[in-house]
Amino acid sequence: MTNKEIIAAVIAHFKKEFAHDSSGHDWFHIERVWKLAKTINQTEKADEFVVELGALLHDIADHKFVADADTVAEARTITLLSNLGVEAAIIEKVLHIVANCSFKGGAKANMSDNYSMKSVEGLIVQDADRLDAIGAIGVARTFAFGGKFGNSLYDPAIAPATFNSAEEYRNNRTHTINHFYEKLLLLKDGMNTETGKRMAEKRHAYMENFLSQFYAEWNGEA
After folding, report:
1. Is the distance from CB of 6 to CB of 84 less than 8 angstroms?
2. How confident is the model over 110-141, as pLDDT tens digits?
């Protein structure tokens, strides 16, 4: 199979697998990350095939939904790509991206995750994934995720938390507005590429404006 045919096969696989997700981690999230990664790579000039595969597979076993996610992600990635005839060296590069892409929480997590990612291709995919978590799309996905897991909209009595571990971050369930402070507003300063940083500025500002309007309406001021 050609690289183009492999990408098409992977797309078909994930379109089916993630078709009915309602948490904001559906096929369209994967597609947006894939498109963003390709856009960023127009400047970065990394290995396009690895970037595309990494973007398409980055949520193959998300730790928010899958127990022992790292082990499951590795097995699924190897099986899928091996069956499509992808060479072992490429699979290893994709495995590195899949294992290190996600924001896992904990103290200074958005920075420590960057240090774990060693490849340029991985840094591009990580930026693309983080960009889809902020801005207008990010706001929409945040409330979809909160509703999926039964989180309340907002409770002014519950302040945002600082987490000391990925497990503590993962197991915390609070109101949805706190998620902006515990993750989303941190992502701009964790971007890797110049293109990602530039795109994040506008999306970050949108979230700040959204929160200002939200509080004004909540308090009956607007």
Report:
1. yes
2. 444 555 898 999 999 999 999 999 999 999 99
Neighbours of 45 (CB within 10 A): 8
- 64 class by beta-carbon count within 10 Å (0-12 exposed, 13-18 middle, 19+ buried): middle
CB 153 within 8 A of CB 146: yes
Confidence band for 109, pLDDT divided at 50, 70 and 90: very low
Quote the longest CA-to-CA distance of the chain: 60
Residue 67: pLDDT above 80? no
Q: How many CA atoms lie within 13 A of 119 on its CB side?
A: 22
More confident residue, 170 or 35: 35
Containing structural domain, residue 103: 3-218
DSSP string covering 31-66, please?
A: HHHHHHHHHHHHHH---HHHHHHHHHHTTTT-TTTS
What burial class does residue 157 get, using C-beta atoms within 10 Å of its C-beta: 0-12 exposed, 13-18 middle, 19+ buried?
exposed
Q: What is the pLDDT of residues 43-62, one digit of tens each?
A: 999 999 999 999 999 999 76
Number of domains in the chain: 1
CATH number at residue 103: 1.10.3210.50
Q: Which two tokens stand for residue 40?
A: 């960023």
